[in-house]
Amino acid sequence: MGFYELFKFWAFRVDPEKIHDLTIKLTHRYPDMMAKLSGAHHNSDPRFALELNGMKFSFPVGLAAGLDKNAECISYFSQLPFGFIEVGTVTPKPQPGNARPRLFRYPEEESIRNCMGFNNRGANNLLTNLRAARTHGKPIGVNLGKNKDTPAEIAHQDYESLYQSFHLEADYLVINVSSPNTPGLRDLQAVEGLRAILQAVTAHRTNHSAPLFVKLAPDLALEDLDQMIDTVFGFPIEGLIATNTTIMPERGAGGMSGRVLLERSRRVRKHVLNRIKKDYPDKICIGVGGISSFQDLWDFWTDGGLLAQVYTAFIFQGPGLLYEMERQLVRALDVNKVASLRELIEHIDEAKFPS
Ligand SMILES: Cc1cc2nc3c(=O)[nH]c(=O)nc-3n(C[C@H](O)[C@H](O)[C@H](O)COP(=O)(O)O)c2cc1C
């Protein structure tokens, strides 16, 4: 039994949020010891290297938002093969989030339901942690959200103040209007709400500002999605992140992530990637939602994607997920006799999946 299996054997008997908080605390205090226990090696294969929007990635898979909400564990996560790390969601003021219990596991489906509600210690705290972190050269994204008690009419002010706090500090920023756990937040995906936010935020952009992304829900009708894509790319925004968690009311409140999300998320990703290819070729779509194996990553590449993120599969599989993806990527490059990941993806339609 490896370290993570041992950890899981014990941890999955404890309340999910309690074990989450304890692990974050330990990892914050002892990042190097935890990295050693996680088997961090780590010299990434130079053939994996990618450069996009001025950012350098050593691996095409990053950590999705919501695991390290207060940026306490960057010094640990950056020692794993993650190519980039997204922290947050951060809101301007600290807030406790929704009532507990608010985190539920579905082990047989490798899925999670959460109704956390942007629990976080606020922008000042995150900024302090970000400045103190050892990033090992990995791009760090900060995911921005509004406080629960900020009325929708002035939600743009929250995003604007967060943007001003972080646009010269982070490597990229994400406008999150797609969490199902803050009442009314997803309504901001409608054109007027979104336009107000994008206007307020992009007014502060300079040549030195971090690239900006908008994170989408998987539950949008395709016509609404089209409107949203056109609205977003009417502003100087580098790309979209698809997707956040999905609502499945039959399971209870909150958002579902992991394998049960894959199909819905992939449908949205495919649509976004097709629109980008057709109308916005200089934009990118970071894929997240249900990606839990090298096969899923491969499927995302065949759909036209490049950079992906994981959250739930990392909880169930641990760092081994990344080591396995690395191993299979090396095999894929060797089997297809290509010199780099870029080249593999450019020829993905003719490429052989490594057996
Ligand atoms: C417990 C939990 C908390 C999350 N918190 C956030 C968050 O604060 N901000 C955000 O943009 N996404 C958040 N997410 C969504 C993830 O970033 C990701 O979009 C989603 O889980 C789908 O990816 P996955 O299937 O790999 O988990 C959260 C997900 C989970 C499971």
Structure, described:
With 355 residues, the chain is α/β, with parallel strands linked by helices. It has 13 helices and 13 strands. The longest helix is centred in the last third of the chain and has 18 residues, at 262-279. It binds flavin mononucleotide. The site of flavin mononucleotide has 27 residues, from β6, β11 and α11.
Q: Quick one: how many beta strands? A: 13
Enumerate how many helices there are, as a single number.
13
Task: Report the biggest beta sheet as strand number plus sense, adding barrel if it closes.
Answer: 8 strands, parallel
Helices and strands: which structural class?
alpha/beta
Cα distance spanning the termini: 25 Å
Give the overall shape: globular
Can you list the strand order of the major beta sheet?
Answer: 3-13-12-10-9-8-7-4
Strand/helix succession: HHHEEEHEEEHEHEHEHEEHEHEHHH
Give a list of the ligands: flavin mononucleotide
Q: What proportion of the residues form beta strands (DSSP E)?
A: 15-25%
Q: How much helical structure, as a percent, in the residues?
A: 25-40%
pLDDT < 50 stretches:
none
Instruction: Indicate the mean pLDDT.
Output: 94
Radius of gyration: 19 Å
SSE diagram, text form:
Blueprint: H1 3-11, H2 16-29, H3 31-37, E1 50-52, E2 55-57, E3 61-63, H4 74-77, E4 85-90, E5 103-106, E6 111-114, H5 123-132, E7 140-144, H6 155-166, E8 172-176, H7 191-202, E9 212-216, H8 222-232, E10 239-242, E11 255-258, H9 262-279, E12 284-288, H10 294-302, E13 308-310, H11 312-317, H12 320-335, H13 341-346
Parallel strand pairs: 3-13, 4-7, 7-8, 8-9, 9-10, 10-12, 12-13
Antiparallel strand pairs: 1-2, 5-6, 6-11
Helix pairs in contact: 2-3, 6-7, 7-8, 8-9
The chain binds flavin mononucleotide (FMN).
